[in-house]
Specification:
Elements lengths: L4 H7 L8 H9 L20 H5 L23 H5 L6 E3 L2 E2 L4 H10 L6 H15 L6 E4 L4 H7 L3 H13 L8 E3 L11 H8 L3 E3 L7 E9 L3 H12 L4 E9 L2
Parallel strand pairs: 1-7, 2-7, 3-6, 6-7
Antiparallel strand pairs: 4-5
Helix pairs in contact: 6-8
The structure holds zinc ion (ZN) (2 copies).
């Protein structure tokens, strides 16, 4: 009987801590802390305990959009007045080093292999926060021209690792990007909203009610809000946004 490589991956998934391949790989190549290179448990956070406690955890942020709050409130002023189309934004870290450094290497220095530890870190935080688990994970899509240029979609790389880790189905083709938009990082908040408007399209009707959009970094949330608007128009009731870091 012939066993295809795809079937082998299903029998011995690399991200499944109970798989034989996982155990063998960790024995042969021990897991190392992303910051200090000390040997760590392969199954949990990709940082050792000491480095983990020094990470820039996001605290006191708006429950809706994830933005840092100055006063003791649940929601920021903007969300109280004009809430975004998504229902919850979970970004466990601020966009500061060493998290920012790992995210930059991953996205701009062409290191898709960084997706695995970053998704592992995000999964650990999601499980610790006991968020409601969605029925489907989707990435923020890249326009095909941008995808050719970068070689991979960082959001999709995070999504598929997160999907395996949390056992949630994922889909890379539900939302497509139809228009190339200027880089968001160089835009002001109001410009970003107009910038992304009408630049995404649904490829088919989603047959689930609860979706999480996965991204590497959230800034204003305007991209996620635009995608959420489309999802909600077509029957999705609840949309979460999950990203490693929030910039504001
Ligand atoms: Zn360490
Ligand atoms: Zn807010």
């Amino acid at each position: 009987m012939e066993i295809s490589p795809g079937k082998l991956i299903r029998i011995f998934p690399r991200d499944n801590p109970r798989s034989l391949l996982y155990a063998a790989l960790n024995w042969l190549v021990p897991a190392l802390c992303l910051s200090c290179q000390r040997q760590i448990e392969a199954d949990g956070s990709p940082f050792c305990e000491q480095c983990y406690t020094q990470l820039p955890f996001q605290q006191d942020c708006c429950r809706r959009c994830g933005q840092l709050l100055v006063a003791d409130m649940d929601h920021c002023g903007r969300c109280l007045q004009h809430p975004p189309a998504f229902d919850l934004c979970f970004c466990p870290f601020r966009y500061q080093d060493p998290i920012a450094d790992h995210l930059r290497k991953f996205k701009y220095q062409g290191k898709p292999e960084q997706a695995r530890p970053l998704a592992q870190l995000l999964a650990t935080e999601i499980l610790a926060t006991q968020l409601t688990i969605p029925e489907l994970l989707i990435p923020v899509p890249l326009h095909p021209a941008k995808l050719r240029q970068r070689g991979f979609n960082q959001s999709w790389q995070l999504t598929r690792h997160l999907s395996r880790r949390l056992g949630i189905p994922c889909c890379n083709s539900l939302i497509v990007k139809t228009r190339v938009t200027p880089p968001q990082a160089q835009q002001k908040w109001q410009q970003r909203l107009t910038n992304v408007r009408g630049s995404f399209k649904l490829s088919r009707r989603p047959n689930v009610r609860h979706i999480a959009i996965v991204d590497d970094v959230v800034t204003t949330g305007s991209t996620a809000a635009e995608i959420s608007k489309i999802l909600k128009k077509y029957g999705v009731d609840y949309v979460q946004v999950w990203a490693v870091a929030h910039t504001v």
